[in-house]
Specification:
The protein is built from 12 helices and 2 strands. It has 291 residues and is mainly α. Pfam families: ABC-3 (PF00950).
Amino acid sequence: MSYEGWILLTASLVGLSCGIIGVFLILRKMAMMADAISHTVLLGIVSAYLITRELNGMPMLIGAIIAGLLTAVLVQWLHSLGVQQDASIGVVFTTLFAIGVILIATKTGNVHLDVQHALMGEITFVPWHTMGVPLLGEIPQATFILLIVFAIVLIMIFAFYKEWKITTFDAALAASLGIPVLLMHYVFMTLVSITTVASFDAVGAIMVVAMLITPASAAYLWTDRLSVMLGLSALFGITSAIGGYYIAVWIDTSISGSMAFATGIIFLISFIGSPKHGYISRFIRPETLPE
């Protein structure tokens, strides 16, 4: 595959995985959790480096996942103590991210580990860091990890589709049916963390947040059916990735930033033109007259 092809494939995998996970974040009214985890994984990455002194490999992935799960646990704990959920997310997010920034500034020295890279990523470097995979040959490491994560997300979402649907729309009903609501919550947060971490190094926090929230929000405007919303969100994620890449090439700017911008364009089109919940449809939809 060409250099450009690997970039497009990697970005599309981010769009697919984040698009599917993002639907449940939106429906559970936990959109800001995506922002929190995408930033607090920085603490896990820095901590893993300080322990292992390695910038690549499994230790950093594990460290980032642990930081993501720690974020979810702390938010849930504060919420259980009576703190509003949005306030819990804000407190945990800013505190853990600030600790990560302080550690970078004081402990990492001249190592290429900085906040700018964490926020924006650098997807153009992805094709250069390859690994050998049986039957597939040499492929970029980030692409291979994202392929695995996408497979995990698909398996978990569709294997427990009924459970996700019930716990998302009516947690009380789910509990009465014997579904372990809290366990499902933490499994879901694990999926969010894994997806965020896998996408983080390649595209940075800004695009991860954009891909987790915006395609799902756009899909929500087009349909009220969960299965259709999942498909549309994944489609919007891929479209944003590919469209954003060509926008970046056209105006010679940040690829990740352009992909995040493309998600905003898709949302704006959906907000204006959706036949179900779009802005224009409110004016052209015929009024229902009382009998």
